[in-house]
Amino acid sequence: MRSSGSQNSGRREAFFFVFLVLAAACTFFTGFAARCRDIRQDTLRLHILANSDSDFDQGVKLAVRDAILEDAAELFSGVSCRAAMERQAQEKLPEIEAAARAALKKLGVETPVKAQVVTMFFDTRVYGEALLPAGRYRAVRVTLGKGQGKNWWCVLFPPLCLPAAGAKPPSEESEKVQKELLPEGERPRYRMRLAVVEWAEELRERWADS
What we know:
Number of domains: 1
Low-confidence stretches: 14-28
């Protein structure tokens, strides 16, 4: 029969083991959460909202997308970091709207266009070979008409969706951010941590809206 002293010692050892496991798990996840936070802070997205989900309005959205991207490389030339890209985007909003209106005019469409630089929530998404974790990002948002249709988005910084991005050597900041993006090929490895991050960010978003 085991003495109470040995039983207490065993419990302490078990408790200490569980504590170490939980501490290691928290440290492991905290590092991942910090990496996700850095990605959100260092990324600027382009977000185009269609007027509706009709086939016609979705086609219009893609035509506007093409027009904006055609001008985007020139609009954002010489930008080396996300903050500078955002400042330039803010200055170029009238030109972004003009590109969208020109595309609409070609289609014979008359609908309001509004370009803004905003902070908005995105779910976890795959972009090319990278994963972008859920959370609030800075974005250039272009709203067509009522903005009630499915959206299209890409990454302006680092310049992953600019047509001429490959024509110039990427800046050190751009290369750094691209290396920080989560590789899509390792999605199974990140699945659980991404799920926790998305749950936490969605909960935070609900609290912010309440």
